Amino acid sequence: MESTPVNWEVLDSLVVDFAKSENLLEDSPPSPSSSSSSSSYRSRLLVLQIRRSIESGDIQAAVDLLRCYAPALLDDHRILFRLHKQRFIELLRKGTDKDKDLAIECVRVSLAPCALNAYPEAYEEFKHVLLALIFDESDQTSPVASEWSEERRFDLAGLLSTILRAYLHAYDPVFPMALRYLISIHKAYCLRQGISSPISDLTDRLLFEDRDPSATPQENLFEAPPFDEVDIQALAHAVELTRQAAVDSLRFAKGDLFQAFQNELCRVRMNVSLLDEIVHDYCVYRGIADSCIKSPSAAKLANGQSKDCLLNFDSRNSKLSDGEASVNNVDSECAGEANADSVSTQAIDVVMRFALETTNHREDCSTSDANHDQSCRRLRRSRYHSNRQRSRKRWRGRVVKWEVTPYAPSSEMNKQDFMSVLDHSGCRLVQDQVSNNQSILENLNGLEDNKYEILLEIKDLAEKGLAAEVFEELNAIDPDFFVQNPILFFQLKQVEFLKLVCDGNLAMALKVACTHLGPLAASNQSLLKPLKETLLALLSPSEAASTKGIPLSILATSLQVAMSRRLGIEEPQLMKIMRATLHTHNEWFKLQMCKDRFEEFLKIDLLKDVDAPVNNNAMFKQHSDICTHGSSQSTICSSSKLPDDVSSPSPVSSSNEGLIDETAILKIMEFLALPRADAIHLLGQYNGNAETAIQQIFS
């Protein structure tokens, strides 16, 4: 799993799109899709507000919001009946005489008339719920104990959320949907293969087991034409539904496979608080977001370790009822002042160590004057640091305006009371030490005071193909780095070799090959093949740039990750999740012996393609553009080609699979409720005859 290639630039784009869609970044530049994203964001907030109102028992507030923003939903008497019934219970729950009178009025004016034509069982349910007038909530043996249960609130809130998402098209951005899908497949694969997941501690906390209730289609939709069995089976196995549930989901989506897929994915609940944390950590690591404010998880950890530090975070409003959203109440202005006026002692130690190592090993990196070389290094770092700072955005966090008032310090509080910052490498809150360390800061003027900045500089240089500069920087920081990472050294020198060939400097290119590439390949047999392919560039220097080599973005990330480990910086959790889940996604569909119908829709195919260029305009078009492919494609899954470099672990050969008729596979999957791979195995035992296989099973 560690070696699974990932197109990190594509992931960057997905993450940025998610952060912008959720307003997690400040001062995001407008984009062509900003208007639609803003509309979707407001719709998601509306769904969330209605959900919270129901969960808190304020049913009337939810009804008022529905009447204002989605009045058509109240025309469905099934929904209206459930809302009135829950409102009746909540009024009784308050226990006052006035509320009891309001409950009886609710029965007379709203609940009873609605029960007459909501659905066949509604009137019986209406008579049953009236028993709540005489049986108290505390009586757990009463016939209406289930009606008093607060779980009814959450079920109703989940159902309304499912319906509203589809009605308002308030779907999540591509990134969280893809993450749900990949994690679900990862869990299914590990369970089927009987292996332990290396990321189970993350996935178990990130993806909840329960789902929102499914929306049942209206009765007039039961007359919809039959759906393609390929679509039914694809949906059923993609989101773990029974066949009938998949049919109902397609009916609710009026036959649109991709809309049904989105509806089912968004039913799976996520811990959005944790999602925001891992996204923030990834954004800081990749240089997407400013690192001046640490994620809430680190803040809470730090708060437990340092009792003398203050963090502007209101814990009473930070946790929402169902993990739908988290709220970051860090006062950005105070945090900015603290960041400007204080410094992490651990960061100072790191910079001092870097400065000492740079001084001790300077003669190994350059023959120029040490002072001049140090000045050049400082200027270059300052230039890259300035460029990156301009491109990075400040992390805003998830703020729900109607619930949260940003925390502001009182006028009596001194500025020094808020001069605390998060140490990004140690997750600790440290006090302002500027006055005590002024001389140290002066000596270190011009050098980076954060390990992240050094790593991002190296990443930037590698992405631009400046191999010599990368080697110089890394060798100055850690002379043993390339001794411990010979593969990365080979790849870096490979980039340098190809650049020299492309520039026509063949003599210097041969020197690089003789001095570095040859000895490395001689000591590592796995490097002989890439060495031979690299040397072929000498035959046609004009085409050297197109010679197959490691993509610069992959090399840059590999260098960043390896150097992070050397400096004690943990790799972002999101990178671990993506490597593991993309690996199991490959393995899962090798077992299923077909192509994933939804990987293009969720950009999973681009995440796997390390050579795919990133085009934001093309990547983040409306989902409807993708859905126009139609839900009833006559794609023969069994004929889909698998990557040439991976062999299926299945005992059924690809040639035998090709002889099995697709209709027979679908028939076995439908009648026996088997996964595709098991259906193919079974048919292989009966020469592809579905009828014979079914008869033998039931005989």
From TrEMBL:
PROSITE patterns: CTLH (PS50897). It comes from the Eukaryota. Residues 43-99, 451-508 form the CTLH domain. SMART domains: CTLH. This is CTLH domain-containing protein. The lineage of its organism: Eukaryota, Viridiplantae, Streptophyta, Embryophyta, Tracheophyta.
